[in-house]
Amino acid sequence: MLDAILWGVIQGLTEFLPISSSGHLVLIPELLGREGPDLATSAMLHLGTLAAVIVYYRNDLVRMARFDRPARKMITLLVIGTIPAVILGLAFESRLDQLNENPKAVAAMLIVTGVVLLSTMLIRFGDRRADDLAAKDAVLIGLAQSAALIPGISRSGMTISAGLGRGMEPVEAARFGFLLGIPAIAGAGLLSAGRAVSDGTGITAAIVVGTVVAGLIGYLAIALLIRALQRVGLGPFGLYCVTIGAVALAVL
User: Fold this and answer.
1) Mean pLDDT (whole number) for 112-134
2) Which residue range(s) make up the domain with 168?
3) What confidence score (pLDDT) does residue 196 get?
């Protein structure tokens, strides 16, 4: 039970804070000398964080469900932005899975995430909203998201950084990035669930508790990131990623 709660807290925080959930779920078990979450737990934790982002951005999803002209444009942008991750994920699935077994490589990628986040401190933020984006913007942000297929690269960190680079207002960059992340998080959860079913792994009460924890912590993490973007930007998260990555490289 305690392990499931621990993984729920880690997944909830790191899925949305720009510090890489995949990286932490590889490095923390290594640093603690214990087994990480199994496939069933991983699948359920993803579904918990999926619920968190759906609830947080429920008003946007309701507006898109109206399928009027602005809604169709937003849906189109999200579909365009999702395509790169789908193509690259299918093309390099086996190689990406191998990286999960290499903690030093994951730690190095966490440092890369930190450098990208720190570089946003040099960007002069724009005022573009998600509704102002064009197909080219969606492709570029989608490519940034696809980089997060590599363990240690933060999905939210890459999409928000790319959005800032395209002249978006920080909170709007996060909004588009998180909406874009809904298919990605759902896909990761369903993929893990499929593997868990094929392996005969069952869902226990502890996993359900961990899932609820992941959802609650995930919702709070989104709110925390939105506030941080308004006050301090991504710099502190970048410093954290560089520090943790360097420590992991030194220790592991």
Assistant:
1) 96
2) 2-251
3) 67
